[in-house]
Amino acid sequence: MNIVLGVTGGIAAYKTPELVRRLRDAGADVRVIVTPNATRFVAPLALATVSNHGVITDQWGDSEKGGVDHIELARWAELLLIAPATANIIAKLAVGIADDALSTYAVAHRQQIAVAPAMNWAMLQHPTVVQNLETLRRRGVEIIDPESGPLAEGEEGLGRLADIPVIVERVQQLFRPKDLQGRSILVTAGPTREPIDPVRYLSNRSSGKMGFAMAEAAQKRGASVMLVSGPTMHDAVMQNLRGQQIVIKAAAVADFTPAATAAQKIKKEQGNELTITFKKNPDIIDSIAAAVPRPFIVAFAAETESIEENAREKLLRKKADLIVANDVGDASIGFDSDENEVLVISRDGRTMKIAKAPKLVIANRILDVIMEHLPRD
């Protein structure tokens, strides 16, 4: 992987030496271009040290000190990654302005471009920034979306630079072989809703983030992906099952549903207690396993105790091919977390622990395991 990293003048620039180190650990050769404002937040010497190359700071700089000709560099590079990307550089990319070393190089670059925006939430929502990002997306630029959290100005909101492991994973995805090309995959995500009356329902805390990450990762690896997320999970899955070669059941589906749904809103004046009788929901995996031809089935097990033991029992009971178990009692990897840590168990008894990481990273590791266990054509 030959990567040009462009660093612009946002506070998140201080994170870029770590980004360079992680990219090199992943096998990349990295050359760095910094804008003048970026040098206010990160020292070129630090980037030169971790990249093992001179850092380009001046469009007309001495080539012996890193001022490589931008056309020559464009012939070498396979990816231009800009992180952090300010509103200024995003605007320049959108309209083709070339007035410094980085924007001039960007016009010469002919391979893939990836941009990781980072700015205050108000700037990110400005109509011009939104429009410019949409322009870049339409051109095929990979946008690595920012995350929510504390911002430099003391505010809270969307705009933080994506976590370094997420950026590295997205970069690796761009270089990863399309090993799922020609595969049809159905992914389920999120919670189901079991209605009590016209205005109330029972659900669970699942955010769907793990399932969405599975769908994104599979699509990036070349698969044709059907994502099912919604209250009528069983019907939607069965209606779209035909032709699916792999089913990844990441959704948190309710095992039980009210035996009867009230036709009108239940009023609190009806009494001090409310008794609801439940009946068992149809089992989606049982229905999938009975399909002919039967797809490769990946089940998920959200557990709070005896994680491996319970997951193995579910794997056998559901007749799945793989099961992915995680501890939802741990808030750092449980419901609504951006990270996960899982144990993948196969029908032949093999287990693989995937260490705590962002869910997109976990998703790709799970897909790696799936590829190892798929029947050979």
Quickly describe the structure:
With 377 residues, this protein is of the alpha/beta class. It has helices spanning 16-25, 44-51, 70-76, 87-95, 101-108, 121-124, 127-138, 164-175, 209-220, 233-239, 284-289, 307-318, 359-373; strands spanning 2-7, 29-34, 79-85, 112-117, 142-143, 147-150, 156-160, 184-188, 194-197, 200-202, 224-228, 246-249, 256-258, 278-280, 296-303, 322-327, 339-346, 351-358.
Q: What brief labels describe this structure?
A:
377 residues; alpha/beta; Rossmann fold; 7-stranded mixed β-sheet; 13 helices; 18 strands; 32% helix; globular
CATH architect. name of the largest domain: 3-Layer(aba) Sandwich
Biggest sheet, open or closed, and with what strands and sense?
Answer: 7 strands, mixed
Number of domains: 2
Structural class: alpha/beta
- Mean pLDDT across every amino acid position: 90
The CATH topology annotation of the largest domain reads as Rossmann fold
Distance between the termini: 30 Å
The proportion of strand residues reads: 15-25%
Counting DSSP H or I runs of 4 or more residues, the number of helices is: 13
- Count of extended strands: 18
CATH class of the largest domain: Alpha Beta
Shape: globular
Radius of gyration: 24 Å
Return residue spans where pLDDT drops below 50 for at least 5 consecutive residues. none
| CATH homologous superfamily title of the largest domain | CoaB-like
Strand order of the largest sheet: 11-8-12-15-16-17-18
Helix content: 25-40%
